[in-house]
Amino acid sequence: MHKPLFLLLSFIILQIHAQDFDFQIDHSSLIVNNLDTTADFYSNILKLKEIPHPDKAPGFRWFAVQGNSQLHLIYKDTVVMKKHKSMHLCLSTPNLETFVKHLESNNIEYEDWPGTKGAVTLRSDGVRQIYLTDPEGYWIEVNNAKHD
Q: What does the alpha-carbon distance between residue 63 and residue 27 come to, in Å, rounded to a whole number?
């Protein structure tokens, strides 16, 4: 193979392998049986901003998480979801202590990873985290991890 052709093919192959899809999370969806109660929790307790559904269709409540990331609540009265703490939404805040006080003032229970009520887990990397459930029983982790 000629050296110029080899160099060109090598460059193309490197460009293909170096491709980065630059994914961002667009949204997560949760199936809920009580749309209004669950939406009120995300609005009033987690303080997420509700955003309009593009079609204004009944059975949906959408929330902005950060930037363009969203949480979609979808009403289904015939679907039962099995919930487990390992499958959870995780939100990060630099104000974890303030958030814990907010939960306590609203009588919202939280726990650490092993399940001790009112406790905070300290991960091996120094991140502090708590877990709580929404009115549907979905688990939510809130931690103080720093993101650049």
A: 9
Per-residue pLDDT of the chain (148 residues; tens, 9 = 90+): 555 555 555 555 555 555 677 777 889 999 999 999 999 999 999 999 999 999 988 999 999 998 889 999 999 988 888 899 999 999 999 999 999 999 999 999 999 999 999 999 999 999 999 999 999 999 999 999 998 7
Helices (H), the chain: 3-17, 35-44, 96-105
How many structural domains comprise the chain? 2
| Beta-bridge partners for 117 | 111
The candidate with the shortest Cα–Cα distance to 130, out of 107, 110, 108, is 110
Given a contact cutoff of 8 angstroms between Cβ atoms, the answer to whether 136 and 128 are in contact is no
Sheet with 49-51: strands ordered across: 27-32, 69-75, 60-66, 49-51
Evaluate whether residue 15 is within a structural domain: no
Residue 30 shares a structural domain with residue 76:
yes
Alpha-carbon separation of residue 97 from 11, 41, 104, 115 (angstroms): 51, 19, 11, 19
Q: Count the Cβ atoms, other than its own, within 10 Å of residue 64.
A: 14
